[in-house]
Amino acid sequence: MSCNPFNIGDSLPIIRRSITQSVIDQYAKASGDFNPIHIDQQFAKNSPFKSTIAHGLMIASSISHMLSEAFGISWTNSGQLSLRFRNPVLEGDSISTFGQIETIVCQNDLIEIDCNVGVKKDSGQDAITGQAKLIYAIERGTEFE
User: Which of 105, 98, 130, 101 is nearest to 8 (CA)?
Assistant: First the structure.
């Protein structure tokens, strides 16, 4: 079996998001994380960041979104992330994901894939960097569902 449809060096889809206070507040409600650094503008003005910051896992979710776009149900079924949070994302920042396939190992109907992944702020600063691993399952040339 060929390792198609993937090749070492392939770039993963770019996911772009603007981080507004409304988005941060919605994530706080969904997650139950009401730390004042995320939701209290007055508190945040007195912090080292001088602004509210997005929840780290909210920003990391854009990496999972990227991997779902690239690998579909195989990401959901087998994906693993190892992340390092580099710089906070402030209210008002825009972010973009990045990712590239590093290694591919074919074994019968399974393809083990390792990727470099991350999120950059529009300033060029890395917000998150890391590694993603998954097993892409193929059956007669089509992905398992």
Answer: 101
Integer Cα distance of 45 and 127 in angstroms: 20
From residue 104, give the alpha-carbon distance in Å to each of 29, 38, 108, 123: 39, 39, 13, 32
Phi, psi dihedral angles at 84 (to 5 degrees): -125, 125
> What distances in angstroms separate CA 145 from CA 74, 114, 138, 139, one per listed residue?
8, 21, 10, 10
Q: Are 1 and 106 in contact (CB under 8 A)?
A: yes
CA dist 51 → 41, 81, 88, 127 (Å): 7, 28, 10, 16
pLDDT tens digit sequence for 78-131: 999 999 999 999 999 999 999 999 999 998 889 999 999 999 999 999 999 999
pTM of the model: 0.89
Mean pLDDT score across all residues of the chain? 92
Q: How far apart (Å, rounded) are the C-alpha atoms in residues 127 and 89?
A: 7
Question: Which range has the worst mean pLDDT, 49-53, 61-65, 94-98, 105-109?
Answer: 105-109
